[in-house]
Design goal:
Helix content: 40-55%
Radius of gyration: 25 Å
Low-confidence stretches: none
Strand order of the largest sheet: 2-1-3-4-5
CATH topology of the largest domain: Beta-Lactamase
Structural class: alpha/beta
Largest sheet: 5 strands, parallel
Number of helices: 9
């Protein structure tokens, strides 16, 4: 069940504020609180980080609605909708600079209020997705530059896929992990053991501060797909498919890898070198979440670049 969007009200007339509060609750929103001044609003918004702020454009006190909204926009990127009974041109010109997500005229119409809020929430959600996609693509472009630079060294005479220094790989993965707000990124290499059986090992790793490193766990060294009940994953990766799932969405017998890593969601992509499956890269989250198609496409580009760099000759 999705959480109700949380809205904070900034209105210095108590009767109007309470009426808006009851209207919002009847429309299915959660009201996080009410502030009568810009100063109090800034304190509460910093603490609560609501999804949206309804701001009376005329506020008594040192900070009016425009200045308060501008500060909220700059510091927290939270969408603001202005409530106003009237506004002169000079005030509206000031308000435009704060990039509001809409205006509602008082006395407000319930349907109009609902429509403006829904449009603001939708617009803000799309903007966040676009910004995240652009951040990931910028991180990927930086990774391309780095990979090209470190791939220009001497090529082994055997023409075998190269191994990179762990610190180099972390420098490549970190900006992507930060752009994704990911919990961890792991690169797994598939290789035959002395008996000729294909085994898999966690070779490189980057993690956020809350992630507990798994690079040296013995269970993640020279395991087989079948030993972790991941034969289905192997078949999908061989076909070039992406595996994207939350822990709760996996069959019980396929949860062991997530448990070993301490993660709740992942996007797993194959790494091919000269048309052969070299291994796979996993982008992991510490809480359950689903990645957008734009994010997954950027991650696919990342996996392809890693394969190209490791197979460069």
């Amino acid at each position: 069940m999705m959480e109700k969007p949380a809205i904070f009200i900034v209105e210095d007339e108590a009767i109007v504020a309470n009426d808006i509060k009851e209207t919002l609750k009847s429309l299915g929103y959660a009201v996080q609180g009410i502030a009568k001044s810009g100063e109090v609003a800034l304190e509460k918004v910093k603490e609560l980080l609501p999804d949206l702020v309804l701001m009376d454009i005329h506020l008594a006190g040192r900070l009016d609605g425009v200045e308060t909204a501008g500060t909220i926009h700059v510091l927290y990127g939270i969408p603001v909708i202005y409530l106003t009974a009237y506004a002169d041109k000079a005030l509206l010109d000031r308000a435009k600079v704060t990039e509001p997500y809409g205006y509602v005229i008082k006395p407000y119409d319930e349907r109009e209020l609902h429509s403006v809020i829904e449009m603001a929430l939708y617009k803000h959600r799309i903007e966040r997705e676009i910004n995240k996609r652009d951040a990931v693509l910028f991180a990927v472009s930086s990774a391309v530059e780095w990979l090209l630079r470190i791939s220009r060294g001497d090529v082994p005479a055997s023409h075998q896929p190269r191994d990179f220094n762990s610190s180099d790989i972390r420098d490549i993965l970190e900006p992507i992990g930060l752009a994704l707000d990911a919990g961890a990124i792991g690169i797994f290499k598939a290789h035959p053991d002395p008996a000729g059986q294909e085994t898999v090992s966690l070779l490189y790793e980057w993690g956020c501060p809350a992630y507990l490193p798994s690079l040296y766990k013995p269970e993640l060294k020279q395991f087989t797909f079948s030993s972790l009940n991941l034969t289905r994953w192997h078949d999908l990766l061989m076909k070039g498919d992406v595996i994207s799932s939350t822990l709760s969405g996996l069959p019980d017998n396929e949860k062991r890898l997530y448990d070993l890593l301490g993660v709740k969601a992942a996007v797993i992509l194959p790494i091919f070198i000269r048309d052969n499956l070299w291994g796979f890269i996993g982008f992991f989250d510490l809480a359950e979440r689903t990645r957008s198609s734009d994010e997954i496409e950027a991650l696919r580009i990342t996996a392809n670049l890693l394969g190209a760099a490791m197979g460069y000759r």
